[in-house]
Fold Cytochrome b5, putative.
Amino acid sequence: MVVKKLKVIDDKELKKLKTESKSCIVINDLIYDVSSFYEHPGGYDLFKEYEGLDATDAFNSIGHSENAKNLMNSFLIGIKKNSKEYKKKEKTKIIENKIEYINYSDEEIKKEEKEPQESKPKENKPTLIKKEDKTNYPVVAGIIILFGVAYYFLFLK
C-alpha cells in the first residue's frame, strides 16, 4: 500500500493557486493540478470552466476508463480542507513548517472514486455549458462583399 502525503488546501489557497496560473480542480474532495494536462480528450478548455471549483458531478457524468482514473493520481496535489474526506483522515494530520498534510493511500483514492454518488449531497455547481458561437456574421458578410467588389474592380473591369 502506497501512502501519499497530501497537502491540505483551503479555499483561500485554492484561489491563490489560480492567480499563480495553476489550473486546479476538485474531484471527490481531492485537488488535482491539471495545468500540464493539455492532451485531455475533452479539451483543455473544460478544465478552465471548473478551475478552482468542484468538478465531481461533471467528472462522474462522463465515463472515464480505469487508465484515465489511474492517470489522475499523477496530478493529485492535495485534499480540500474541512471536506468530508478531510474530516475522515484528520487523525493522520501532520504539520511541517506551518503546512498541514494528511496521509492518503492509493487504495483510499480508488475506493472514493468507486463510491456511489447518490450518497453524496447534491450541491449547486455550474453545469457544463457549450461555448457560445462568437462569430460576428454581419462583419463577415461585409468582408466577403468587400472582397467581391475589389475582385470585380481589379480583375474584371
Notes: The chain is about 40% helix and 20% strand.
